Fold:
Amino acid sequence: MRHREVAFFEGSFVPLAEANINVMTHAFNYGTAVFEGIRGYWNADDEELYLFRPRDHFARLIQNASLLKMKLPYDADALCDLAVELIQRNGYREDVYIRPLAYKTARQIGTKLSPGDDFTMFVVPMRDYVDTSRPLAVSVSSWRRVEDNAIPARGKICGAYVNSALAATEARDNGYDEAIVLNAHGKVAEGAAMNIFIARNSKLVTTPIYADILEGITRHTVVELARWELGVETDFRPIDRSELYIADEAFFCGTGAQIAAIGSVDRRLVGTGQAGPITRRLQAIYGDVTRGRIGHYRKWLLSCRVTSRSLESASCLAGVGD
Ligand code: PMP
Structure:
């Protein structure tokens, strides 16, 4: 079945091909927008697409929008409803990734944050963002993470992702899968678009929120699952670069990355070079949680009810043909 490719743009659902922004738009010129990434997981047995922690993502978007003096005309619940409708109108019955953005709309030359902002959202199919089936070869980037007093990393601000793009590209150009970025103090911050954990002596360690990181929702998920499902506690403290080389295990986590084992850092093996036991158990549990296979954690899921019936009614409502 072909997808309808509908986006939410300027207050209504329109064909994706028509969801276009003028070249003079402030956000395009100066990176003045904040965004989110939300995964939807298709569960073939349930015939359901589940959004993972959408309310938390939208709450973060609303918070971050205020960093750029934007106020969305929707609360987190209304944004969840829009996301479900977006899924239904597109008709996806596979894993997807939703990209909501709040952006400055002024058509002006000049950087100041003038009044005028809007919200848009589109969805694309997505499987792995990084390969989770094998340990990744990563390098410590020569690029430093943007500082809180430059562009707050916790803000998920579009312009700040130039920093991520430089680090991710450098790593790939040098033959690695991904980058780890240090902050201005020389301590580990995170990956280009994911948080990082290491395991030492059967305990997890992740970088603290003052390390110039995004306060990841998957990071929080991992801490909870490690504690309640594995009985493993997490320390939140600065991580030295050299700890990456001697860790028993290391992994990235994020909405896109999910849980991705790190096999080596700067060509030094992490542990045995294979995904370690804590990483593997977390990967398995995370897979079950996100697809709604563990009752207790269904609290984190929002069903999109993408049944044949809702697809039919969505296509009537959408008014945009194939
Ligand atoms: N750090 C950065 C810089 C990111 O872009 C992301 C992806 N959103 C993450 C961490 C992981 O955050 P989350 O788990 O909320 O997706």
Q: What stands out?
A: The longest strand covers residues 96-104. The chain has two domains: 6-127+299-318, 136-295. The first helix runs from residue 26 to 30.
